[in-house]
Structure formats: structure tokens, C-alpha cells
Amino acid sequence: MAGNIKLEVVTPERSVVSEEAQIVIAPGSLGEFGVLIGHTPFLTTLKQGIVRYKDVKGIERFVFVSGGFAEALPNKVTVLAQAAERRRDINLERAKSAYERAMGRLEGKVKEDVDFVRAKAALDRALYRVKLAETR
Ligand code: ATP
User: Fold this and answer.
1) What are the tens digits of pLDDT across the range 97-130?
2) Domain that holds residue 33
3) 89 lines ligand 1 (CB under 6 A)
4) 19 and 51, same domain (yes or no)
């Protein structure tokens, strides 16, 4: 079946994407999945990672998401995430600082009680952001 689907990526603060797409690929907790028009409805949790989609012109677009939920309907995909940024919205210096902070905690350079799971998640977020911001 031909046609576009509506992609909405929403955080508690703002709508990050509200656009028609030819295909949406998202990092589901059980693995990456793709949605085309006419997909069977489903709900899933997301890992932190990159949502990719092809816009109506066929240009590939990338959005970082810090985990969350996705609802796929036959003509719409909605992603709810605590944080999400398009490539152009990522502050590279901020992401690099977050990377250094998280790495310092994981390497035991910080004299404080370290929550390693939290530090690893922060490191992963920073890595995704740096990688996405540096991709051209
Ligand atoms: P930091 O330690 O720099 O806050 P973080 O990974 O803890 O990084 P999050 O909790 O994921 O940050 O996000 C908090 C808010 O800040 C969200 O609105 C998110 O979109 C925004 N944000 C975080 N890092 C960046 C970045 N590098 N560029 C643009 N926005 C960012």
C-alpha cells in the first residue's frame, strides 16, 4: 500500500517532530522496527537511540530519543520520550561535557557515590548525541 504516515515525536516540553514520513524506523526495546502505511497497530517501549525516518521527499532524517514509548497505528506513529532532539537541535559541546562527566564517574575519578547504571545511561545518551551531531 502506498502513502505516507504521520510521525509525531513528543516530549513533556515540546513537540519535536510532527511530519509526514514514508517510513519510520525506531529503537524498540525488543529490537529496531520499521513502520510503513497500513502497519498493524501496536505499542512498545523504546530504548535510547535514534528514530530515523524518510520525509516526503525521501530525505533521511534522524532524531535522538532517550527511550520512551511508541504507538504505531496504520497511518500514524507517535513517540513519547522524556527527551528528544533533532540533529540540528543538539548542542555538541553540552553533549561532550555530559560524556566527560559520565566517563569520569564510570572510571571512578569522582569522589562521590556513583550510580553506575545512571552514569552508563548518561554516557550512552551523550554518545548518541555526539555521534548524531557530528554526522553530516
Ligand atoms: P545533561 O547532563 O547535559 O543535562 P542529560 O543526558 O542528562 O544531559 P537529558 O536528561 O537527556 O540530559 O535531557 C534534559 C533536557 O535537556 C531535555 O530537554 C533534552 O532535550 C535537553 N538536552 C540534553 N542534552 C542536550 C544537548 N546536548 N543538546 C540539546 N539539548 C539537550
Assistant:
1) 999 999 999 998 877 888 999 999 999 999 999 9
2) 5-87
3) yes
4) yes
